[in-house]
Write a structure and sequence with these properties.
By secondary structure, the protein is an alpha/beta fold. The chain is 40% helix and 15% strand. The model has no long low-confidence stretch (mean pLDDT 90).
Length: 440
């Protein structure tokens, strides 16, 4: 056992040992990937029974703080679910293209809807979901070929994914995910003790051959972003859906979850892999179209999955505020809202295209078929990010999203004007050239 680990892990009970490890991770004395002692070694060092140490490790695994990796032993999770520190403020004059937020100017004004709704008096023991919201949501699901016979309202897209996963899976189960994947999904899998299995992808989503290989690894679920994939902007099309369905037919009991977080502002039509499946759920959030602070998402799925999610609310959140649910219905029903969504989708589309075209003029191939992000493969990721920051642009390093995928940067184009895109592309080209030359 190393001296550093021995210094930070202590206690005379499983609770105390687990608590000391958590504090060490939180204070960064134990960093992501750091190895922990074997159960027997730690038991001997603390003069405790191996059963006590094993119990502490089980608690840490259940919380997603550590993972067990066969011969590599027990290690600190790469993304332990601890209270995040406040993000560092950017230097003056730096444009933030890393935050992932929608453009506030393209979000609807909620004030008129707030003044028009009757908040009602929703009491304990009443329904989880507001019926008018379910009816309005059903029309949207069914227009896209997704059954809405069973639905529930949850508190955002990740909440819906978590509840669907928890309804069927247990710690240690494998989950196939896009690679690169949304950081929130990777964090969620870690917190639930689930093992991500990467599926390589292109601009049209998961590659059929890669999905076939992943499903051979005894996975229990597949998470797919059908459009506006974060971080790459990928989106399924009808041809890719047909190819993926052929692969999925050989796995009829696989749980399929779709994270359709951008919905009507994604810029492409909805596609789904869930038609005719036994176990499935499609989660649709309003965060990108109406605003992240509403914390409302609708989940359609098979009867068992929705029933288990609803049952789980009894010992959890109980329900999403019906005031918020009524607000979504009111905003959706206002005149011109569909036109507003089309305007937002078209604006994001122009901004994506402006950056992609500007990068192409510098010989840089990037991806961004839908949504709010453009994915730019680079050779030297850290240096490129650093040099862009020096040039006045804050972007996100791709390593945060990748499992096996190569180096890249993610650029959020939500507030990037076409003229700014030309300047940014020149800065990226310069940073790439400088970083590549330095690496040679």
């Amino acid at each position: 056992m190393t001296v550093s680990v021995q210094k930070y892990i202590r206690g005379s009970s499983a609770v105390e040992i687990a608590g000391s490890v958590e504090r060490a991770i939180h204070t960064e004395r134990l960093v992501p990937g750091a190895g922990l002692p074997t159960v027997r070694a730690l038991a001997e060092a603390l003069d405790l029974s191996p059963a006590t140490v094993a119990s502490a490790y089980r608690t840490l695994r259940a919380r997603g703080l550590v993972v067990t990796q066969g011969r590599r032993g027990t290690r600190v999770s790469e993304r332990p679910p601890l209270t995040a520190r406040a993000p560092a403020s950017l230097p003056d004059g730096v444009r933030d293209l890393a935050d992932g937020n929608p453009d506030p100017d393209l979000l609807p004004d909620l004030l008129p809807a707030l003044g028009s709704i009757d908040p009602g008096k929703h009491l304990y023991g009443r329904g989880v979901s507001h019926p008018p919201l379910l009816r309005a949501s059903a029309r949207r699901f069914e227009a896209d070929g997704i059954s809405a016979a069973h639905q529930i309202v949850v508190s955002g897209a990740l909440d819906g994914l978590e509840r669907a996963l928890d309804a069927h899976l247990r710690p240690g189960d494998r989950v196939a995910v896009e690679d690169p994947a949304f950081l929130g999904v990777l964090d969620l899998l870690q917190a639930l003790g689930l093992v991500p299995v990467p599926v390589a992808m292109d601009e049209f989503g998961p590659l059929p051959q890669a999905l076939t290989a992943a499903l051979e690894r005894d996975v229990a679920a597949l998470i797919v972003t059908p459009r506006a994939q974060n971080p790459t902007g990928a989106a399924l099309d009808a041809r890719r859906v047909r190819a993926l369905r052929r692969v999925l037919r050989r796995h009829p009991d696989l749980l399929i979850l779709e994270d359709d977080h951008a919905g009507p502002v994604a810029g492409v039509d909805a596609q789904t892999l869930c038609a005719g499946r036994r176990r499935w759920a499609v989660v649709r959030s309003v965060s990108k179209s109406l605003g992240p602070d509403l914390r409302v998402a609708m989940v359609a799925g098979d009867a068992t999955t929705i029933a288990r999610i609803e049952g789980g609310t009894i010992v959890g959140m109980r329900w999403v505020s019906h005031v918020l649910q009524r607000l979504v219905v009111s905003v959706w029903s206002r005149r011109g809202m569909s036109a507003g969504f089309r305007k937002a989708a078209n604006t994001y589309g122009r901004r994506r295209k402006a950056l992609l075209d500007a990068l192409a003029l510098h010989g840089i191939t990037a991806r961004g078929r839908s949504g709010l992000n453009v994915w730019v493969p680079v050779r030297e990721e850290a240096q490129t990010v650093s040099r862009l920051l020096e040039s006045g642009w804050a972007v996100t390093p791709g390593e945060r999203f990748g499992i096996e995928s190569g180096p890249a940067i993610r650029v959020c184009i939500a507030r990037l004007s076409p003229s700014d895109a030309i300047q940014l592309a020149a800065s990226i080209a310069s940073a790439v050239r400088t970083s590549t030359a330095a690496a040679v």
